[in-house]
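Cont'd.
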Amino acid sequence: MAIRQSAAGGARRGGLIAMLQAVAAFVLLGALIFVGALPLLCLFLPAILALAVEREPGRPMTRTLLLFGTAGAWDPLSVVWQAGSPRGVEWMAMLDARAVVWAWLAQAAGWLLAEGIGLGLVLLADRETARIEAASRAEIAALTAEWNLGEVADRLP
Amino acid sequence: MASPEDGFVNGVYELLPGEPPACGGGQISCAVRDHRNGHRELIGVLAARDAPVRSVALGTLSGQAIENMILPIAHGVGRLPDGRSGMFVIQPRAVGQPVLDAAGRTEPWGERALIEHLIRPAALALDRLSHLGVTHRAIRGNNVFRPRAGSRITLGGAWAGPPGALQPSVFEPPYSAMCHPSGRGEGGSADDVYALGVLMLALAIGAVPLADLPPDEAIHRKLERGSYAALAGALRLPTSIADLARGMLAEDPDHRPPPVLLADPLAARSRRVAARPPPRAHTGLDIGGHTVWDARSLAYAAFRAPEEGMRLLRGPDIDMWLRRALGDPLLAARVDDAVRSAGSSHQAENGTADAGRLMHCIAALDPLAPCCWQGVALFPDGLGAMCAAADPQAGRSGLREKLTQLVQGDGLAVWAAAKGSRVDNALIHLDWRQSRVLLNIPGWAGGFPRLRYAQNPLLACQSALVGAGCVVRLHELLPALDANAQAAGARLVDAEIAAFISARMKGRLDAEFAVLAEEEAHEVDPPGVRGLAQLRVLARLAQSDPALHWSNIARAALPQAEAAVARWHAGSERAQRLERLRHAAQEGNLLAMLAALDDPASLHEDASGVDAAKGRIALLETTLSRIGSHRAMRRAAGRQTAQEIAAACGTILLVGVAVARTMF
């Protein structure tokens, strides 16, 4: 009985959270539309998704995507900046398909660069580690054979 | 130089077994030719393996000359063509024939002939001999020679065996005759005088008296009646001869005339010692199948039947007999003290306390008696020869165990104390303690074999590993081992050889023998320990002549020696030393073989090297384990670095775009 009550309580809490998240999402969407931030959302959607997904401290991937995305969306952002008053018309002007593509491509390039460099560094580290490991094992084998230390060789990892 | 295998002794004296047989006084002998001058009037007398030659006498008499006595010229190992080998004593061939034939008979000699041709020359020779501190102990019918009728006799050689060992019991004083043939000891010139007196009687009557009696019965009769009465009681002898014989056959050695006095028979006749005849009981006492009437006969009967003797001594019969029948309460008190003596702790441990008490009782009953121990009688200076004789009989009579128990306990000291001033108490104590030390040395370097070889400097090594060869001196051991190495196998040193070497080298290799004994006892062989110890012993023997090589020994010792290479850890060092060892073995160079293995400095370096290697391996193992455990961390660090680089690139790109758009 206690288990069933606990399971029912958990389900009710889950539904409440989902409902609160949906309300928060609508409130945020309304606010964005109100301030004209929807175009920004479109331009930086990959970075925003990365922000939601990434769990690493400091959000380094999000940071990279934002930097690359800002560089890719420089032109529409500069238009808004130069307009002086952020009205909805100027904001919507940013939703040019070409500008969005450039912004997304830039963010994709940033992602690729970060992942590529990471992969390269890991490969390099693994290769160096393997070299050190092989050299150590060879030296142990040589010492064992030279000094007749069979019992030492038996307990090698 | 010709070797013993070629039939030579000391490379000079050629044994000629094909020549007419020489008279060696009952011992195996053969004709000898001196190769330096072709002199043929020599013989070689072969000593039995278990009866070593008299080393002290041979050393003292070397280069001496005594008229009317055959002295040794040389001694050394030789081999007869039939394979018999051993220690030969080279001495001049006796001229003439023995004074008694093989049956112990001859034409009776007259009074003048006995004095002029027998007593006087023999006494002069014995006097000269006693001045050199040596006794003859071999005056008997077949060892005294006369070139022709009417000439003076010559005393034969007496050097190729323990003193008195070949003497018929009738020619020995009863106390010497009751001893084991090898245990009669050097004795004194008085014993030679006694034997001369018996020979004089035999020549006077033309036959050996009491020859038809068993030795045991003859000794009983001598003790009961006195030697003179037993030997010449019913004979009609010239007065001068009877007077001489009475003095020469006195029971107490101190009562016999010394040889110098015998040289003047008239003076010897006039010397009357007021020896009191032993008191005789008015009733007899039955013991061991005999009825005894006096104390010394009782002592002898108790010696011959030790169990019954001890039983009677424990009871009241003997005490009452001594007090009432013999009338000697002092003697009864001394015997009672001996019966009640506690004995040594060692005797109590091995169950020989009764034997010790009986020996004490016999010594109390008869102060002239030898040391009587468990049915074996000996004089302390005969212990060495007894040890030599004991080993072959170990399985039959247990003589070896009896002698071991005698030396381990304090039997000899008790006997010497009971003898009082008749013996050199301090000397016997010193010899006994030294013997006991040797007996108590653990391992192969001590025990009975060590005692046997230490007591007999010219006793041949009795190890089976030397084969048929006769090894008396240390330098003869390696040739014998080399000749027999193929049959011996890998084990070239056994307990007998170890005891032999220890005795000859005064214990300088005892540490190696302790190792060998330990390995033998536990039947384990840590890498090369046995092989190295064996090689050390063999190489030490080879040091006496480094130029000689011993191929067979080296080949036989190689497998065990190779195991010693494993003491080095370094593979290259092992290979190098193994190569050196095999090369030295091929040459038969035992010293080089040992040099390849016995290198403490190199072993120390090797130990340091192996410690360093272990340290280095431990460090490498730590590195390997770190590599395994830090793999995920390194990957995370790589990704983080990549993010920073990417961020830097993004920043540069952003600044570049901003600058470009602003300026152009």
